[in-house]
Design goal:
Number of helices: 5
Order of helices and strands: EEHHEEEEEEHEHEEEEEH
Strand content: 35-45%
Shape: globular
Largest sheet: 8 strands, antiparallel
Number of strands: 14
Amino acid sequence: MSVKKEASGRRSVQVEVEVPGTPDEVWQAIATGPGISSWFVPTEFEERDGKPVAVKLNFGPGMESSSVVTAWDPPRRFAAEAPGWAPGSPVIADEWSVEARGGGICVVRVVHSLFASTDDLDNQLEGTESGWPSFFRILRIYLAHFRGQRSAMMQWMAPAAGTEAEAWETLSAALGLKGVSAGQYCTAPAGVPGLGGVVEHVTQRPYNALLRLDKPGPGTAALGAVKLRRPDRGHAKFLPLRRSGGRDRRPRDTALASVDSRTLPDAGGDEQE
């Protein structure tokens, strides 16, 4: 990963992924509110005279991000600009594009850029770049198996004492994921609410796994253990679930509950409307 630096002061990072689908189908997934909400975070587009003028992404309570749409050329390209990461920092431009490659495959490309005279914000750009591959894996699954369907997202987070490795050990053992490999079907053991599906991706550094679910319903589950920013809080285990299907499945707010080796919170009982 590296930041591209131009003489004009423009600095940018670019990430791309091959996905199944026609340009129109892929456009619906990356350039509409219901589409983006099905693989990224809850998203809404504001329209004026039938054309998008703004986009709002909801990363959680108090963590909304709003951008002004600056270009709109379906199903090929759209661009938007948002305020900088901190007061006084430069505007951030985002450009999304869809390129047909033949054989029912398209390339989705996103470019993030800003203008700066120093390297101070390069780490922010690199951090943004490094975050996309995990979401693009969900996008591929969505387009391959749940194309056009709406989804609801539920997320559980629990603090865990010890290291990231120890937190992952607890979570993976609880859900029957210990030692699994990509392509393997796994199901949660007895005593844990039903969770089962095919392992699409798993890695130990960082500690995470991505499942394509058939239990408790069609969708995906992204699991991981990450170090919290506050050292006194240790590490956390995450279980974001996306349930696809139905005519009016809308993304919901984050739900918090504990996850340990004895039980997994029931989605119906702990979900917050």
